[in-house]
Specification:
Blueprint lengths: L8 H23 L19 H17 L3 H9 L3 H10 L2 H4 L6 E2 H8 L3 H13 L4 E4 L2 E3 L2 H5 L3 H18 L2 H7 L10 H5 L6 H6 L2 H14 L7 H7 L8 E6 L5 H9 L3 E7 L4 H6 L9 E5 L12 E5 L7 H10 L9 E6 L1 E2 L9 H18 L4 E2 H11 L3 E7 L7 E7 L2
Parallel strand pairs: 4-5, 4-7, 5-6, 7-8, 9-10
Antiparallel strand pairs: 1-3, 2-3, 8-12, 11-12
Helix pairs in contact: 1-2, 4-7, 4-9, 6-7, 9-13, 17-19
């Protein structure tokens, strides 16, 4: 009896890509959305109904691409970060806003505006063109793609500049930091401290540098635009209305963007935003008039003893910035004001237990890269659900993890913890 010949993996992948692209295009046709392109005015996002097909295409194309590379080329692709130099050049001189929308700009003109030789400008900008940021429509002349157009937004450009000028350098010392502090449990024992020759934590350094503080704020705003991190997942994916009329403390809530969005959507919520070094009057002034009575602000050390009683304590992407012992400390600091049945809602990422087990690989790769960035910068970490459970249990056995909600396509889950003394 003849043994059936198995289909080669590259053929399987090509078939899967073809089917998934057809599925994706069907969604676009049904929604009246044009097919993706790099054109300056092309839609920057796909409709959410296309997310499943998008995941399938991106994972399959990435695997097919990697299968066709020799090992040395595959490693080189994943280790070559020299393009951060090109991105840094583009950001520092704000090239996206230098190039007119719907127009063109020559390397010679960029050279005049920046003060560099044309051949220097062309080296950086042609690297950007190869990343599909701008396109060279004729020799020595560039125009926008949808990506370079998106980078005209101040928050997006500031975030990328922070990564190019600070984040890249920080990553270079991550192994040195591990060797210097092999059992580090402090946020000032990091690659950031080594590479920037500084003491104190990243947050302390940012607080003392207005320019870095502005870039940090821009980075926060940028992350809310990343696929899977948008506020709609939090607003739509958790049953806030079912909580009834409640007081919610947004612990480490920065400038209150999330609290404002929650109060605007849910009239049953009264929000109090707490964070360190907050200017309460300035923050409250930015709240829409119709919400001012339900969104308030309070300067508070998030690791200090909680002084305000509430029904719900909401903590979004704060604990991932810190080593385990500080996450435990922050949870314990809420206990003095907790009443029976009070809830703590942790809004954090859940790392898959093993690669490919619960997320499309292209999304997991981004999450694991973020995890290494947190290690290098603050000794923070992304955690698996098992690791989150361990922190909650260590903080106090009276904390009961009652529910975990992760909306479809969201990169963040809501872990609902109930205080049961």
């Amino acid at each position: 009896m003849a043994i059936a010949k198995s289909t080669p993996r590259i053929v399987e992948l090509a078939t899967q890509i073809s089917k998934s692209v057809a599925d994706l295009q069907a969604v676009l046709d049904a929604k009246g959305v044009p097919s993706p392109s790099f054109d300056e005015n092309a839609p920057p996002k796909l409709p959410k109904e296309a997310n499943d097909a998008q995941d399938a295409v991106l994972d399959a194309t990435a695997e097919l691409h990697d299968l066709l590379l020799e090992p040395v080329t595959l490693v080189l692709k994943n280790s070559a970060n020299n393009s951060m130099g090109s991105l840094g050049f583009m950001c520092r001189f704000d090239i996206p806003n230098m190039v007119p929308l719907g127009g063109k700009l020559s390397y010679a003109e960029i050279a005049k505006k920046t003060g560099f030789a044309e051949f220097v400008v062309s080296r950086f900008m042609r690297d950007c063109v190869c990343m599909r940021i701008f396109r060279e429509t004729e020799p020595g002349v560039i125009e926008h793609t949808k990506t370079s157009k998106a980078l005209r937004a101040p928050w997006f450009l500031a975030w990328l500049r922070a990564g190019a000028e600070e984040g890249w350098a920080t990553m270079l010392g991550v192994v040195d930091a591990l060797q210097k502090w092999p059992n580090a449990s402090e946020s000032d024992q990091t690659s950031f401290n080594i590479m920037h020759n500084t003491t104190g934590s990243y947050f302390e350094n940012v607080a003392n540098d207005p320019e870095k503080a502005a870039r940090f704020g821009a980075g926060m705003a940028t992350q809310w635009e990343f696929p899977g991190y948008q506020l709609e997942y939090l607003l739509d994916g958790f049953d806030w209305a079912a909580l009834g009329p409640v007081k919610v403390i947004d612990v480490g809530g920065f400038k209150g963007r999330i609290s404002i969005a929650l109060a605007d959507r849910f009239p049953n919520l009264n929000m109090l935003v707490q964070d360190m070094g907050m200017n309460e009057k300035e923050a409250h002034a930015a709240v829409p008039d119709e919400l001012k009575d339900r969104v308030n602000f309070m300067a508070h050390d998030v690791f200090g003893t909680q002084t305000e009683s509430a029904d719900v304590y909401f903590i979004r992407q704060v604990l991932h910035d810190w080593p385990d012992k500080y996450g435990i400390k922050l949870l314990r600091s809420q206990i003095p004001k907790l009443k029976k049945g009070a809830k703590i809602l942790l809004n954090e990422s859940l790392l898959p237990e093993t690669p490919g087990s619960s997320l499309p690989l292209w999304k997991e790769r981004d999450l694991r890269t973020m995890d290494i960035g947190l290690l290098a910068t603050m000794n923070g970490r992304e955690r698996t659900l098992k690791e989150w459970k361990a922190i909650i249990a260590e903080a106090d056995p009276r904390f009961v993890l009652q529910n975990v909600v992760q909306p479809k396509d969201s990169m963040l889950a809501v872990m609902e913890i109930v205080w049961n003394p």
